[in-house]
Amino acid sequence: MPRGTRRLATLGAVAVGGMVLAARGLGPAQLPVAEALVVSRAFVERADTVRRNETLSELFARQQILGTDLLVLLDAWRADLNPRRIRSGTVFEFRIPADDERPDRVRVRANDGTFLVADRGSAGRWVASRETITWDVEAERITGHVTSSLYATLDALIQDSVLPGPARAQLAWDLADGVYAWQIDFTRDLHPGDEFAVLYERLTSSLGEVRYGRVLAAVIETAGRENTAYVLSDAEGRNAYYDAEGRSLRRAFKMYPVQFRRISSNFSAGRLHPVLRTTRAHLGTDYSASVGTPIEATADGTVIRAGRWGGYGIVVALRHAKGIETRYAHMSKLASGIRPGVRIRQGQTIGYVGMTGLANGPHVHYEFIKNGRHLNPRRVDLGDGEPVPAAQRAEFEAVRTALDRQLGRPTVAPSKAD
Ligand SMILES: [Zn+2]
Questions:
Q1: CA of 161 relative to ligand 1 center, distance in Å
Q2: By the 8 A CB rule, do 105 and 117 touch?
Q3: Which CATH number fits domain 262-375: 2.70.70.10, 2.40.30.10, 1.10.1520.10, 3.90.1170.50?
């Protein structure tokens, strides 16, 4: 578990930081390739990297660990390391005593939080152990005015040393799809000059790696209106976001079914000209995204159709509460297990972006139908959010006060209307 800074200890942020890390695997490309290094007169340390199409036997042979010796070592690690699943780029570190040619200690990174270690014991044995990599969690604040898009603005304001490029993109997407998915349509509601302040977690490992954690709080102004967001962990340990009055930002329906590049066509009720027959309605919104991008259900529901359907190509239709149906068209394929009758949760992947049916480029054609009538999914009233659960009210007030201070925002007095 990462160590929390004192500021964040009051927020209960530390455990969630650990969850975030567990969810995001560390690819071999990010593993540092260490140079050989003399650390003392007693022994030498060397690092060796698994090369493309190389087996562990070949790598360990270079380091004088062979035959039975290697089998015994791998057996000591068998609970944590599958030799067949080691990827190229993985780095093993070897410690060689000054009076020997063979290493007496081997170490490899198992995941974000752990090194596996093996020490040579007596009588040809290897003894396995683990070393924990600690992560520090800090809150970082970023404030400014929107220039073009939110992503471009954050990308320009946050330096590489604070958060690397991919982590900045993740922060921007988290704001758009995680925190404000139900409040702000970032392609329509945000304009140059709009003011914002965001407080987010930045994680630093004992090895100097930097990660983005989660959004802690934010205020984004749109059309003179303040959109506030404060994190509170729910009963399952998931991040839930509430506004300053303690209303959940979550709604029954999300605005977008996919991480899109741009909206390639908007909803238009249109009207078929009785004589000319030229105008055509477009009864949904097209979100352009690369082939294979996961498509997510915008709300809880039940699959009522899954498969090929004329011009829709491969499509999924979901039935929701209150006479609402949503459709997701032009998929390259369905997600596994998606068939009529299956219950779906909001945010669950139901298929992948493609261009089947009448589509001239990869995109999701998304329809929102209420009581048989097509509505503009970007104009639908998504309703009010649930209030903070009564049992968490005091916790929420404390979290909001602490986050307001860190955001540099005047503390809001609790509303009497609650
Ligand atoms: Zn369309």
A1: 41
A2: yes
A3: 2.70.70.10
